[in-house]
């Protein structure tokens, strides 16, 4: 997509070098010195050359070639790589040069809707929530068996390749238990101690340090995201239990073997991913007297507060969901996102339909 965009903006083919290091045609370039020499020999002399190196981790010591290429003033360099070798935090160690890291997420609802081409937005959203939004899922809307096999393949690959192998972990049963525990407790406070206590009560004593190591590995592989608590009044992060959200709700349903259940936590997960996709830094808000706000979202030095509920047609539910937001005394925007089909203004708190919110181009 980047290459096509460059071409549409007038960049010539001679200014673009694209190398897929999984392609046997480029097998000689798995040596970083040969890769470096190849690029240097093919760059344009009079204009910027855009260099795309796909699956860069296949080239041993690739960072040596990349760091040298970075020094060239007429090269704009793009790298892609597998989670297994380019986990969060590792790039900073390997690449001394400055870089911008773009973490990929499953499709947004807008992208998913365009791919499946279903006119009924409610039907489309149900598929999005239950089947998930990995790109190839859009081909299996009418084939649940193939879709399940597709998700199982992704899940097992991530666990074995990106987590077990890269982190040198040994206990796959423990890893799967922790992943399942997190998936079933989306949006709930979780700690390593709580998981360790659950394991111990089930007859499998496990230390909190061991659980913490596995939790970190699952997050490093982008299977789950850890979100810390934030004291809104005190303007500081708290060390109490965090919450975890999964990278894809379809994957969660596959792990747990459920669909059309626990909708409240599923849509909370979808809102989290969309805020992440839109570039927000996200925390769980503590607003006082035990009240909690689902998300404190900060972008461009502006703060927004989000509460998420499947429905607030029940007056008691509405009162409960608004209470946490009403505790906040600043003037930042506050939103209540639900699946109810109407919008409302509750003394400055904007109630919005989730599907409409997801379709906003922000």
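Q: What amino acid sequence fits the structure above?
A:
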């Amino acid at each position: 997509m980047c290459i096509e965009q460059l071409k549409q903006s007038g960049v010539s083919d001679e200014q673009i070098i694209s190398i897929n290091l999984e392609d046997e045609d480029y097998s000689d370039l798995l040596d970083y010195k040969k890769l470096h020499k190849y690029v240097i020999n093919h760059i344009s002399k009079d204009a910027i050359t855009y260099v795309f190196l796909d699956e860069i981790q296949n080239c041993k010591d690739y960072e040596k070639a990349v760091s040298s290429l970075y020094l060239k003033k007429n090269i704009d360099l793009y790298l892609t790589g597998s989670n297994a070798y380019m986990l969060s935090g590792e790039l900073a160690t390997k690449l001394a040069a400055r870089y911008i890291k773009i973490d990929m997420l499953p499709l947004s609802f807008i992208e998913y809707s365009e791919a499946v081409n279903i006119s009924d937005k409610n039907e489309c959203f149900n598929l999005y929530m239950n089947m998930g939004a990995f790109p190839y899922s859009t081909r299996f809307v009418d084939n649940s068996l193939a879709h399940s096999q597709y998700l199982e393949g992704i899940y097992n690959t991530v666990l074995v390749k990106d987590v077990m192998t890269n982190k040198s972990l040994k206990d796959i049963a423990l890893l799967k238990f922790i992943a399942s525990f997190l998936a079933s407790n989306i949006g709930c406070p979780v700690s390593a101690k709580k998981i360790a206590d659950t394991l111990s009560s089930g007859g499998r004593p496990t230390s909190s340090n061991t659980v913490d190591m596995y939790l970190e590995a699952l997050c490093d592989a982008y299977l789950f995201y850890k979100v810390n608590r934030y004291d809104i009044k005190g303007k500081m992060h708290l060390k109490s239990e965090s919450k975890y959200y999964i990278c894809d709700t379809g994957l969660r349903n596959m792990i747990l073997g459920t669909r059309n259940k626990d909708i409240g936590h599923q849509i909370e997960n979808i809102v989290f991913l969309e805020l992440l996709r839109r570039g927000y830094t996200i925390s769980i808000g503590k607003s006082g007297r035990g009240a909690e706000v689902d998300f404190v979202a900060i972008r461009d030095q502006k703060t927004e507060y989000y509460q998420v509920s499947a429905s607030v047609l029940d007056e008691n539910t509405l009162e409960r969901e608004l209470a946490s937001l009403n505790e906040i005394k600043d003037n930042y925007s506050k939103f209540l996102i639900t699946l109810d089909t109407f919008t409302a203004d509750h003394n400055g708190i904007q109630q919005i339909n989730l599907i409409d919110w997801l379709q906003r181009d922000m």
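Q: And what stands out in the fold?
A: The chain has two domains: 2-94, 109-358.
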